[in-house]
Design a protein that fits this description.
Shape: globular
Oligomer: single chain
Radius of gyration: 34 Å
Strand content: 15-25%
Distance between the termini: 73 Å
Helix content: 10-25%
Largest sheet: 8 strands, antiparallel
Structural class: alpha+beta
């Protein structure tokens, strides 16, 4: 009897399979296939060193382009056929979108593991991963349907033209390590985190495909899944910095390291490599016996890697380069040759008569004298009016000075406000998980294009009771009188509720209820302005959001209740 279930159904039975874990290498085309794999079992045997391929596995189903699964998914192109399974680019005719499909026989020894891995990955629902859309056993087939990203590019293709720019490499390790840390907290591992499994979208975001599923398709396991994924991220960063694979064997279109010299730091392989990123790659590659050039501890988990990235000085994006416009050149028509016949060789062409210079006639001279006279009269009138205005101002100033002197005893408490420099900032987590701790500095870097973004929530606009709020604590360097704040927001709509509190440190030990309130604002636009009734003296200011607007999808963030801070400024 056929069994059918959507990817949203929980996994009740894993058929006795051990937890999925890994050692990663080549992709199974979970998105944009830059290099098509056809009948490549021999190549996989040569590159896969984990010994997971079983000679006696079932043959891949004999399907063809145009075959339709569940009267919905029409197979278009086979991109991988390997070890008893095949991967296809297909079309979801119901939703009219491209999808990817993994297919294998229901009696394949790894069919149950693949189903379990796909359903577990779908339950994670993190937009930083290519999403599993369906996992089905039907008509003696098991197939997994996933997103297809036509606008994304594999890291393999990006490295074909050279190493990544330093800011791109920083974003790669930052986003990938945070995504994998979230997966590890839910008990999921990737185990085949290779350059082909990491994609950069057209918006500059990095996404990961094949979470748990790629390893299940090949039967890859590991006793230390977190350490395996952490080392894989280190290898990705190493390749991004050097365009070399950090092992002796060539892989993924990259040359390996020279034989018999061991693993050397990226800044020793290629000149100009960022020192901090080079040391970070070595700390993540500790599994191969690598040691950082400084006495920093190795990163054996993705949480360690996220913490190490957060402690690094922020790497800013390169300044945009503006190309000067080409020098203006007159066209042939403007030069007066349009439609002329070419002169015959040896024949002199008569010169056209030269017109007299302008304003040299009798009428022109009279016009010049008239204009000159008008200018002289205008200058005289203007000078007279200016002198009269200055005299009137002097008289008024004397009277005002006398009046102000008489009223000086009353005093004037108004003082001009001035902006305050922000020395440091840290995300404040009152309940649940953090939002984006590595991006808090983007809220005061002076660049309106960078931002710190919250997660996307299904319920709103108020975050309670699921979460009391989200926010950031700012360090002003010393105690100062805070009287106002200007906050630039990424999203408008519905409403955003922002409050300011005076607190005791970057990591407050008191609850929000016991903090001193400075002010609050609720806005439907993209700017929040808070004015305190009375200045509050404090060194640490908590910016706290308790309600978020509803916005559509952008990049890999889906639609829902969310907000982002682009620029935060305090005055006092």
């Amino acid at each position: 009897m056929a069994e059918r279930s959507t990817a949203a159904v929980d996994v009740a039975d894993n058929s006795g399979d051990e937890p999925l874990t890994a050692q990663a290498e080549q992709t199974t085309a979970d998105g944009v296939a830059q290099t098509r794999e056809r009948d490549t079992a021999a190549n996989e045997d040569a590159e896969d060193t984990d010994g997971s391929t079983s000679p006696g596995s079932s043959a891949p189903p004999e399907l063809h382009s145009g075959h339709k699964l569940a009267r919905r998914y029409r197979l278009e192109e086979c991109v991988t056929r390997l070890d008893g399974f095949s991967s296809w680019r297909a079309v979801d005719e119901k939703l009219r979108r491209a999808v990817g499909v993994h297919l294998l026989p229901a009696d394949h020894p790894r069919a149950r593991s693949v189903l379990a891995a796909a359903r577990s990955s779908a339950l994670l629902g993190d937009p930083r991963f290519v999403q599993v859309l369906d996992a089905v056993e039907e008509n003696d087939l098991v197939y997994v349907v996933h997103e297809w990203l036509p606008d994304a590019t594999e890291l393999t293709a990006l490295l074909a033209s050279g190493p990544l720019e330093v800011h791109e490499a920083y974003q790669l390790v930052n986003q990938v390590s945070q995504a994998m840390a979230a997966a590890h907290r839910e008990g999921l591992a990737h185990l085949r985190l290779t350059p082909s499994a990491v994609l950069r979208t057209s918006t500059g975001q990095w996404r990961i495909r094949g979470l748990a599923v790629n390893a299940a398709l090949r039967g890859i396991t590991s006793d230390t899944p977190q350490r395996t994924d952490t080392e894989a991220i280190g290898a990705l960063l190493y390749a991004a910095l050097t365009q070399r694979w950090p092992y002796e064997d060539d892989a993924y279109g990259l040359s390996g390291l020279p034989k018999d010299i061991g693993l050397i730091a990226p800044d020793q392989v290629r000149a100009g490599v960022h020192r901090g990123l080079s040391e970070l790659a070595m700390r993540a590659l500790v599994n191969e016996g690598a040691t950082a050039s400084r006495q920093d501890p190795p990163c054996t988990t993705t949480e360690d890697l996220v913490k190490a990235v957060g402690e690094m000085p922020r790497i800013r994006p390169p300044e945009p380069v503006f190309t000067a416009p080409a020098e203006y050149q007159r066209t042939t028509y403007q030069q007066g040759t349009y439609g002329r016949q070419a002169a015959r060789p040896g024949v002199a062409r008569p010169m056209p008569p030269v017109p007299p210079p302008p304003l040299q006639s009798r009428t022109g001279k009279a016009l010049k004298w008239a204009v000159s006279a008008l200018l002289i009269v205008a200058l005289g009138l203007g000078s007279w009016q200016l002198a009269e205005a200055l005299m009137n101002r002097g008289t008024s100033s004397d009277s005002n000075t006398s009046h102000n002197t008489d009223g000086d005893d009353k005093g004037d408490d108004h003082k001009p406000t001035k902006p305050m420099a922000i020395e440091d900032a840290r995300e404040y987590v009152a309940k649940g998980e953090a939002q984006a701790p590595g991006d808090v500095a983007k809220t005061y870097d002076g660049d309106s294009k960078t931002f710190w973004r919250t997660k996307t929530y299904n319920d709103g606009p108020k975050l309670a009771p699921y979460k009391p709020g989200v926010g950031i604590v700012y360090d002003l360097g010393s105690a100062k009188d805070v009287s106002a704040a200007s906050i630039a927001l990424q999203y408008g709509g519905d409403h955003t509720t922002v409050s300011l509190y005076a607190t005791d440190s970057l990591s407050p030990t008191t609850s929000i209820d016991s903090m001193k309130s400075i002010g609050s604002d609720t806005t439907t636009g993209t700017t929040a302005k808070i004015d305190a009734d009375k200045p509050v003296k404090t060194r640490y200011v908590l910016l706290w959001m308790t309600a978020l607007p509803k916005s559509g999808s952008d990049g890999y963030y889906g639609a829902g209740y969310k907000q982002a801070l682009t620029d935060v400024k305090f005055t006092g």
